[in-house]
Structures are given as C-alpha cells and as structure tokens.
Amino acid sequence: MLVQTCTPEHAAVQAVAAVKAHDGELAFRKQELDMRRDAEYPPFTRLVTLLLDGPDEGEVEAFAGAVADHVRELIGERDVRVLGPAPQALSRLRGRYRWHVLLKSGNGALLRELAASALAWGDQPGRRKVRIVADVDPIEVL
Questions:
Q1: How far is CA 28 from CA 2, 57, 71, in A?
Q2: Residue 76, pLDDT score
Q3: What 3-state class would DSSP assign to 49?
Q4: Per-residue pLDDT, 93
Q5: Is the dihedral of CA 25, 30, 34, 36 positive or negative?
Q6: Domain locations along the chain
Q7: DSSP-based three-state secondary structure for 18
Q8: What is the mean pLDDT of each run of 10 residues along the chain (142 residues)?
Q9: Strands 46-54 and 96-105: what pairing?
Q10: Which of 18, 98, 112, 125 has its CB surrounded by the most CB atoms within 10 Å?
Q11: Which pLDDT belongs to residue 128?
C-alpha cells in the first residue's frame, strides 16, 4: 500500500503504519475513543445540529442567536450543552448564508424533543426567509 499525505502525524495515518506491528487497530481505536470521551462526542453523548440558512446574512445570524436562546430557555436544569451559534465552515453556499447551533447531551430523547421544539418555534410566520433543519447525530459538525 502507498499512502501520500501532508499530515503524516495524523492518528489515522499513524494507525495504518502501525498495523504492520499488529497493534495499530487497537491503538487507533483506543486513542479515538479517548478523544471522543474527552470531547463529549458519540458514542459517549448524543448530538443534534440545528442548521440555519437564508439569503440575508444579518437575518440568518440573528435568527440563529434567537434559536440558541430559545433552546437555552427550554433546557432549564437539564443536562444539555448548547454550543453556538456559529457560522458553518462554508458560511455562504449558493447565495445562502449558513449558521448552526450544536446541542450535546447524554439523553437522545431530550435532544430530539428540543430539536422538534426549535423547528416548530422557527416555523412561525415572518421567519420563512430563514430555513431551519435539524440533523440528529450528524456525521459532521463543522
């Protein structure tokens, strides 16, 4: 096998190189699980990303802030972390500005309930220029 990379120090590349020594798979798996535990990522917690986009940057940013505030009000004393709002990695795509709010909790049912409430709250008249969708257990959170 030939691997070409600009980041030979990356854990995945190091794991592939270590497979020859017969411990790479286990070492990579342990390192990845330790990193995910520390970062509170699956499988140790559940995630929901609320994705917002629209043609007006100011409206999308303001609405993302309002959605995050709405979710924070609903949480109360329950164990949920709200991260953001923040622009998505590709903050403008096809003429639409994109923001997101990330929700983290060990309680998946609670996150789905909060996401449903945010979607219903965001579907009020006058907010139709900004679209909001929920991605439960997203593959990517950028």
A1: 19, 41, 36
A2: 80
A3: strand
A4: 86
A5: positive
A6: 8-39, 46-136
A7: helix
A8: 76 70 68 86 88 91 92 87 90 90 90 90 75 84 64
A9: antiparallel
A10: 98
A11: 66
**CATH 3.20.170.30 matches 46-136:** no
C-alpha to C-alpha distance for 96 and 119, rounded to whole angstroms? 19
Distance in angstroms (rounded) separating the CA atoms of residues 114 and 70: 10
DSSP classification of residue 43: T
Helices 108-122 and 57-75, interaxial angle, to 10°?
A: 130
To which residue do tokens 């929700």 refer? Answer: 103
Tokens of 129: 């220029």
At residue 38's C-alpha, the angle toward residues 105 and 16, to 5°, is 120
Predicted pLDDT of residue 86: 93
What residues contact residue 34 under an 8 Å CB cut-off, 6+ apart? none
Look up residue 54 and give its amino acid: G
> What's residue 126's pLDDT?
66
| Helix, strand and coil in the chain, % to nearest 5 | 40, 25, 30
**Cross-strand bridge partners of residue 47:** 104
